[in-house]
């Protein structure tokens, strides 16, 4: 199957997606499996901007690994990343691409589960679907950084325990498994194998919501998670601004002009944050939808083209089945004629006997002989007239 995703897929191909916060090690993980050079981020800027497919052949299967952009991108809001991801997932859905599993990466060296990490995890949970967790591996990265330091390692074990008991608990209870990635090909390969060994595929919640339930992006569970976060953020900024306002009143009474100016600066900063957050929320509802609608138009065209190819294939298959049946029937009757001919030949009078009958076949053969022989020869001629089809079908 050729695809709008930039690659050609076979019907037996498998797809595994790698997700996680920006900088968690998604591209590094994939490049360990592919041995391909993939852009890897070495600063705070996020590196992978759009989903990209890397293909390997392993365990006798063609496996496409999907590298995804991470949330908490330094340059663009989460909803833009969500739009990017859902667009890809919707195109994939319409091209009948189904994921076998998802590997979700988390940097174990992060001292705490920050707001972005926690939001990303919640969005991921809603994107995949609470009931699809058995297709998920939660993998912690960067273990190698503490491998020769037992104290540092102990800290990482404590963090892992905290993750499992708190943040990851609902995902693990839903069937996800947790693994450690020690930055080696072996641990990457083991995780991939665990997914492929299940020999299963699934549809993500966001794919069902948008393609079956016809929800708009802003109405999906994943987008709602980001929306809640933006609302909470705005409440926090508004509260900070109210507190500053009270301080400003006090400073005014005390005639403390320097403090008043500092507070004004601080208030402006919060106002800017608030505006950005409100703007992001609006764009989550509107622009993301516009982007999505344009993409959905493209998806529909592709999907229609795919259906057309399929229906052509179906009708060709039906034609070929009918033809094969006709040929089989002719071959059968030919065998019967042949048997009759053998019998007729056995009964034939001596060579001097004049012909008893003569006939011209539909395809121009003139045949003569006694009645039985003529009948038989017509049968052979009929098979000869379909012979080209016989070869086409077999080829
Ligand atoms: N020591 C160590 N470094 C890692 C590991 N995984 C990734 N890194 C490093 O972490 C940085 C970010 O890795 P990437 O693979 O680019 O992370 P990403 O998740 O693809 O990031 P985005 O594309 O920005 O979303 C790079 O400097 C990697 O070399 C790991 O397991 N151990
Ligand atoms: Mg990357």
From TrEMBL:
UniProt protein name: G domain-containing protein
Gene Ontology molecular function, alphabetical: GTP binding
Pfam families assigned to the protein according to its UniProt record, in alphabetical order: MMR_HSR1 (PF01926)
Keyword tags: Coiled coil
InterPro entries from the UniProt entry: GTP-bd, P-loop_NTPase
Ranges for domain G: 16-72
Domain of life: Eukaryota
Residue runs in coiled coils: 299-347
Source organism (scientific name): Lachnellula suecica
């Amino acid at each position: 199957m050729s695809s709008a995703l930039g690659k050609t897929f076979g019907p037996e191909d498998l797809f595994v997606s790698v997700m996680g916060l920006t900088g968690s090690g998604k591209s590094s993980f994939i490049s360990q499996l592919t041995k391909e050079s993939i852009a890897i981020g070495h600063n705070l800027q996020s590196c992978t901007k759009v989903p990209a497919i890397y293909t390997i052949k392993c365990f006798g299967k063609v496996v496409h690994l999907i590298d995804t952009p991470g949330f908490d991108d330094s340059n663009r809001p989460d909803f833009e990343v969500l739009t990017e991801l859902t667009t890809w997932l919707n195109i994939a859905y319409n091209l009948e691409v189904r994921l076998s599993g998802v590997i979700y990466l988390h940097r174990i060296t992060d001292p705490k589960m920050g707001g972005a990490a926690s939001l990303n995890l919640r969005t991921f949970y809603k994107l995949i679907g609470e009931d699809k967790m058995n297709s998920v591996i939660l993998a912690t990265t960067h273990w190698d950084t503490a491998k020769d330091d037992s104290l540092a390692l102990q800290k990482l074990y404590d963090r892992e325990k905290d993750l499992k008991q708190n943040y990851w608990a609902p995902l693990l209870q839903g069937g996800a498994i947790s693994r450690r990635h020690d930055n080696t090909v072996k641990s990457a390969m083991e995780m991939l194998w665990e997914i492929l060994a299940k020999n299963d595929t699934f549809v993500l919640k966001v794919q069902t919501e948008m393609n079956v339930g016809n929800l708009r992006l802003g109405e999906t569970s994943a987008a709602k998670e980001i929306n809640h976060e933006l609302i909470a953020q705005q409440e926090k900024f508004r509260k900070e601004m109210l507190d500053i306002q009270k301080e400003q009143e006090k400073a005014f009474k005390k005639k403390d002009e320097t403090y008043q100016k500092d507070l004004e600066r601080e208030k402006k900063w919060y106002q800017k944050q608030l505006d950005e957050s409100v703007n992001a929320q609006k764009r989550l509802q509107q622009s993301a939808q516009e982007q999505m609608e344009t993409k959905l138009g493209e998806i529909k065209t592709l999907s229609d083209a795919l259906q057309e190819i399929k229906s052509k294939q179906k009708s060709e298959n039906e034609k070929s089945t009918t033809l094969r049946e006709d040929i089989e029937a002719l071959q059968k009757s030919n065998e019967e004629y042949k048997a009759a001919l053998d019998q007729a030949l056995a009964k034939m009078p001596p060579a001097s006997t004049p012909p008893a009958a003569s006939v011209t076949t539909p395809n121009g053969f003139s045949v003569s002989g006694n009645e039985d022989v003529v009948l038989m020869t017509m049968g052979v001629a009929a098979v000869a007239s379909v012979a080209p089809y016989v070869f086409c079908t077999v080829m």
